[in-house]
Write a structure and sequence with these properties.
The complex is a heterodimer of chains A (about 350) and B (about 350). By secondary structure, chain A is an alpha/beta fold. Chain A folds into two domains: about 5-220, Rossmann fold; about 230-260 and about 280-345, no CATH class. Chain A is about 30% helix and about 20% strand. Chain A has eleven helices and twelve strands. Chain A has an eight-stranded mixed β-sheet, with helices on both faces. Chain B has about 350 residues and is of the alpha/beta class. Chain B is about 30% helix and about 20% strand. Chain B has nine helices and twelve strands. In chain B, the strands form two sheets. In chain B, strands 6-7-8-3-9-10-12-11 form an eight-stranded mixed β-sheet, sandwiched between helices. Chain B has a four-stranded antiparallel β-sheet with strand order 2-1-4-5. The radius of gyration of chain B is 21 Å and the shape is globular. The two termini of chain B are about 15 Å apart. The chains are: A alpha/beta (about 350), B alpha/beta (about 350). Chains A and B meet through helix 6, helix 7, helix 8, helix 9 and helix 10 of A and helix 5, helix 6, helix 7, helix 8 and helix 9 of B.
Chain lengths: ~350, ~350
Amino acid sequence: MPSILEVEDLSTHFRTDAGEVRAVDHVSFRVDEGETLGLVGESGCGKSITALSLLRLVPSPGRIVSGRIVYRGTDLMPLPEKKMRRYRGREIALIFQEPSTALNPVFTIGYQIAEGLIVHKMMKKKEALREAVRLMHVARIPDAERRAREYPHQLSGGTRQRVLIAMALACRPSLLVADEPTTALDVTIQAEILDLLRRLKEEFRLSLILITHNLGVIAETADRIAVMYAGRIVEEAGAADLFASPLHPYTQALLRSVPRLGEAGSPPAGGRKKRLPAIDGSVPDLLRLPPGCAFHPRCPDVMPECRERVPRFLPLGASGTLPAAAPRPAARAAAAPGSTGAVACFKHHDPEGRPR
Amino acid sequence: MRPAGGPGAAPPGGGPLLEVRELTKHFPIRRGLFSGVSGWVRAVDGVSLSIAPGETLALVGESGSGKTTTGRCILRLIEPTSGAVRFDGANLLALPPRAMRRMRRRIQVIFQDPYGSLNPRMRAGTIVREPLDIHRIGASRRERDERVAALLRRVGLDPAMRDRYPHEFSGGQRQRIGVARALALQPRLIVADEPVSALDVSVQAQVINLLMDLQEEFGIAYLFIAHDLAVVERIADRVAVMYLGLIVESGTREEIFKNPLHPYTRALLQAIPIPDPARARERQVLRGDPPSPAQPPPGCRFHPRCPSAFEPCARVEPALMEVAPGHRVACHLYPGEGGAGGS
């Protein structure tokens, strides 16, 4: 399967009074045609800035300091702004988390969806409005004709998110980047929106980057998952592999710390309730990153080299590009034969990049 | 079988610490400056529940269900429209302000947002000490300071951090400050309103564990208001599920999670995405959005979205009926005395 997007060594920094914040730090990943890549991480890990960087929409004082963003063979980085605009919305579209702030309160829903069509597709207003209603049907908004004449405040959170999805689809993009598309929604509405995204992905043959902190959402939606921590991708693998045999100690700890239904156990009468295996400490401040691996102060498997050097993000497995093809860990090979992944951890390769 | 209107969620044995009966809170809808009240939002519309000492009752539901308003009415941060709230035998709603202030020592609150709920201009130590100062607890300033240090230590913070301001702490640490402040007066009940939902997953687990430890150590009861059922399953002894201002099902943790009866409870449980791709499953996706609490549908409030709705549902409001010991449900699928056709 060819890649629709390849990101190589992307770094986006923010210059602040307190110092340089490396919000995205040497991040590389790819998205295959028709695939859903999940980008998962906690607050401040750089997942949203990665999304904005893909479209070169990083807000000031941030700037992309290095890297290549190759969309279907074209590196977007050197493109002049005018050419870049042809990619935004038309090739790569973005859906934000907060459906109430992403819509303009003084225009009707229909007009806001039509606007993109008028600007990008040179449609006449009437034609664009008709198309907007059609897109609202596509996004399964009931009563679309009437709804198109309403204003954002008249809609529920779930419907607003559907409107944003309709807007994102307006110019027929090939790659959709959805940043926490269900985080502000109730679980029953979240289930509807995820269901809708899955169906639209098939109908429109979309590739999808889904950004979330919710491990349940990512497990049910993504084909492949990249885990971010403190501005870097620390592990990447097929979804089944990642959940069955996580390799990075952060991924392992993160998966253990999520409460899952049915795993609370039954405490004996008057007995202790089962505790969750929490990760000690908290996500580091990007201005005061520890030296070496950013996770090392919280890592149960920390080694001396982890405190001094930053582990490189290196592939595992037979198809990897390591000089001496690293053997795949037995656990992962057994969980999903033929899969590959990559990890940034000295448990799996030494500081020179040789497999351990 | 208890008559309708009995306690919606009663603890087994012993006297309850908190007993709420038929609590309602209706907010007026005003259109324009002079046009008066044009309708009412029935945010809480007849909620009964009780909590035993040392017990955790989880109040779950989605936005607009009235769970937060219920918690605030119990604390009298909002004055309820009607109903009774008895705490330790006293009717809180009838207490004069001074007596209510004394009672507040015994009922504390932890808020969702560890960013917004701490005064940004106060140092951590002062935030925790303030309740001690207000209620003049401890013989001297020094004794209070020692108590603050002990509280900070107990919630896992270094007392040396007492002079820092809230913005210098991480989200999890801020929530720990909120917990230390709530603990300061040795309350018997803490109303915890979504205390972990703003926290990162890895930090959320720490705070849940801390709340469980504190309960064991001090015998505190929690009214744990939450929307995340996986968290609730960890911490709750009993669960009450709210929908549009009403409790639609309540029971022990085991009953609610192993044998959910109300179609809404089932939908809520099914909607939770499972963090395991190997277990991706069939789910019945609910149609439509919850209606506005200003215009709840007639009959059962859930019927327009209910996959099992049948003839009486649009017409008759089902009463909350006991269907198994301690397990109550308000649904025509489970007829009992006063079920379909009753009330």
